[in-house]
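Long-time lurker. I teach an intro course on protein structure, and each term I like to show students one example going from raw sequence to a predicted 3D structure in token notation. This year I'd like something fresh instead of my usual example. Would anyone be willing to generate the tokens for the chain below so I can use it in lecture? Attribution to the forum is fine with me.
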Amino acid sequence: MAWYPGATRMELQPESDNQPAIRPTQFIVHSIVAPWTPQRTYEYWRDSTNLESHFGLGYDGSLGQFIGTETRADANAAANRRADGTGAVSLESASNLQASDPWTAEQVEALIRLGVWLHEKHGIPLRICRTADDPGFGYHRLFTAWNPDGHACPGDARVKQFKEVVFPGIVARATGQTTEEDDMPTAAEVAKAVLTLDGVISVPGAPATNPTWTLSSSVTEILKRIDAVRTAEAAQTAAITQLAGLVGKNVDTAAVVAAVKAAIAEAVVKVHVDVTGPGA
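-- Reply from a regular --
Happy to contribute to a lecture. Here you go:
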């Protein structure tokens, strides 16, 4: 039996020793329809059912392995073990109670790492299974032979992720097109992602004549606006101080209001000029 070094070993007995060997040719992913940790999934397999998967994946990317990948697990119906001794490696992943949520970024990364290991360890080919018996990668509802009850596991959102993110990620990393380091965004990329809408850095209030700002100009603009807010706050504080000085003196209400308005207006004009430029 084989144990993945990236998972915590939580061996199920007697299944781990008693169930027949397989030659892994497929990797099939599931949603367990519960927000469970690997430990809670292990306890469910151990205490509540005679079914099990090889792996359990938590929302935070934590991974537990319950049975070695060269031993049959019973989560995939006809794909568990075939007459020729081939079978599928299975993984149950934490989900909401409707299995409608996408995998988290941590879950996606864990799936990619495991998929690469299964390819390297067992030679599972880098393709989506073309038939129920075809070696490769898949998800539970892909074929009726794997999913005779006809349910939607792992859910629409995750099927889309599998096709567009997870499986391409496995292929790219296994073939050396990307590395784990490549997948980690830089600080500038994170900042750009926060500021970007449809591929263009967008700062609210940006002039229409210059919509495609660089990251540095966006940061400069944000700092200017922070400074403008501080200036406005200082002006308001001065106005309040002036108002406090007038209270109690022999002046009418209109004079007090006029004094406050004049002080604030002066600050607003200054802020407008500093931030947008004259005539903007």
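Some talking points for your students: DSSP finds eight helices and eight strands in the chain. Residues 186-202, 271-280 have pLDDT under 50 and may be disordered.
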